[in-house]
Model the fold of this input.
Amino acid sequence: MSEKTPLTESNREPSAELLEVAHRLRQGLNVDIHEQVVEAIYEDAARLAGRAVTRPGEQTQPTLDRAIDRVVTSRIWGFPVMIALFALMFWLTISGANVPSALLADLLVDNGYPWLKQLTVSLGFPWWLSGVLVDGMYLATAWVVSVMLPPMAIFFPLFTLLEDFGYLPRVAFNLDRLFQMAGAHGKQSMSLMMGFGCNAAGVVATRIIDSPRERLLAIITNNFALCNGRWPTQFLIATLFLGSLVPAQLAGVVSAAAVTGVAMLGVLITFVVSWALSRTALRGEVSTFSLELPPYRPPHFWQTLYTSLVDRTVFVLWRAMVFAVPAGAIIWLSANLHVGGVSVAEHLIHLLNPAGVLLGLNGVILLAYVVAIPANEIVIPTILMFTVLVTGQTELGQGAGVMFELDSEATLKGLLQAGGWTTLTAVNLMLFSLLHNPCSTTIYTIYKETGSWKWTTVATALPLGLGVLLTLIIAAFWRWLA
Done:
């Protein structure tokens, strides 16, 4: 056992010197430092408590944040305000997207397609190569851009402005009580809000939930939140078929109300499925959590616009284009490869059509959702190109699997009606867009987060099963009324 080294000027630690200096300086003061520090701590605590604690019979100083929260978090007005704000966003999106969408279609499809087609002819491309590149890949991508870009460029900035303002945590606050009643964690409201942007991101956001049981509930039900890839389908179908049922001046309002109703139905189904699972396969105690409402702050308009356009709109559009290119090639090939004198696509459509009609849909829609498993964003272009194929409307296309010159909503609706579409088809497509299997990215994310093929299969098959059941019931009831 070694002896301690004597403390000398040469080997004394710096901390000892600092303590000596602090002791000497403290002796030179005429006040008690410890007493002053404790007093300052208590003063800060009292000031914070005075701002946050309300006592019975005591008048609190009114602030703008509290005045707004009395309305937006009210048990009476909270939900009507929330629904009205989302309906307003949808109305602005639907009303504002028509003109730029038509301009993009005119630029990319009506003018860009013939120019590229002529270019491939002048370069001596074989007909099949020109078909795959221009009629398939280019046209599918052009329609993704013209159909998706305008509504996303309007909807995402509006959604981001609400987020930047501080309203979305208030939505989570309003929904917390309902999630608790459904046997789920209150933080699921936050992952639900994230799911409205992207379901894969919503699944990752469930990491904020500590309880494995409640996190699994949030993962399984996140697909019931309409993601960005499904908004264009909702907006377009509501505008073409539901808005046209009323006078023109009310069309935007009715379309927005329909989209709002579908989004709210998704939230309602989230509560119902969470309640059912929490009392069967995922029983357990409900956890509690504290939610701090951030102060309201004026949105930074230009920064918000830049963030929403770059981080959301451009990202989602790029992802859709990446999947649209191979999907366009598959669509063209399936329409031009023949077996027994009939194209592969027509064989598949005829095979799926009886089941589609039973669900109030058709074979084109079911095949489009199979092709669009990689990304929901390509559902509408796929439906349009397959519809041109089965209707044989040569004035809208050149060759099988080609679609162009749909320069107005009337032309689009006329094409779909020629494919057998009715109001029932439109309604059930909006519902099936809400309730069907997640995209491949979300399925992969669910597996990575759960590490279980069992729960990945449940999260994939459950919404699809509910979608089939709901559309089947509505189709049967619709035909019974007719």
Q: What stands out?
A: Strands lie at 338-339, 342-343.
